Amino acid sequence: MNTFIIGIAGKVGSLLARELIARGDDVSGLVRKPEQRRALAELGADDRLGDLTALSADELAELIGPADALVFTAGAGGAGKEATTAIDGDGVVKAIEAARLAGVPRFVLVSVFPEAWRERNLGDDFDHYIAVKKTADIALTTSGLDWVILRPAALTDAPGQDTVALGPAETHGEIPRADVARTLAHLLHEPRISRQILELTTGSTPIPDAVRANVRTR
Ligand SMILES: NC(=O)c1ccc[n+]([C@@H]2O[C@H](COP(=O)([O-])OP(=O)(O)OC[C@H]3O[C@@H](n4cnc5c(N)ncnc54)[C@H](OP(=O)(O)O)[C@@H]3O)[C@@H](O)[C@H]2O)c1
Predict the structure, then answer these.
(1) Cα-to-centroid distance, 110 and ligand 1 (Å)
(2) Which end of the chain is more exposed for a tag (fewer CB within 10 A), N or C?
(3) pLDDT of amino acid 126
(4) Is the pLDDT of residue 175 over 90?
């Protein structure tokens, strides 16, 4: 399988690249800083240099080239409303168009629980982030692509547990990025999971079983 990752130099993106390469897949992705190229080359991933906000959909499609799947795990990371709109919102819309132009059939989006930390009253920028992520979800669900939306709980850098709770509605909690990456790798390799929104948090089900349990039989 050949997967293109937007956000490949990020924490989830690089863990996912590692997972997929360990399976023998071809992995490439978009990086915006030349100094990130070496680490990706050491992983065995190809990079394409570009900034999502500066590229047109056509230019991004050229960079993506032929791929079986595109994973979007980029994010503005709290850099303010404008950046959130440009990357987590418009960036997803651009990536959807680029996937269409490049003929990439499958699109896996890393989103967020709509109710994430709402009780903490984290302010306008966080509310904006949640709203933009939902708008991106809507754009993907209406894209006509073979899509999967994964909504992880709050991300941690704790070691992966290899067990999770995964389903259409889960209770918001925390999840190690390593478990998110491993779940994404399993989802990419399970074509029967399509046009589904799945929420992911810590739990007791081994990741392969959790993914298999979400295959719809009809
Ligand atoms: N933090 C949480 O608790 C949480 C919870 C649920 C979901 N999420 C979502 O999980 C996803 C991954 O999180 P993470 O922790 O892996 O984030 P991360 O480490 O900050 O990675 C995000 C990546 O996006 C890239 N990016 C940002 N702007 C870009 C642009 N204009 N062009 C190209 N690439 C760009 C960054 O590039 P640089 O390396 O150049 O900065 C970075 O590599 C995000 O979509 C986030 O919204 C996060």
Answers:
(1) 9
(2) C
(3) 87
(4) yes
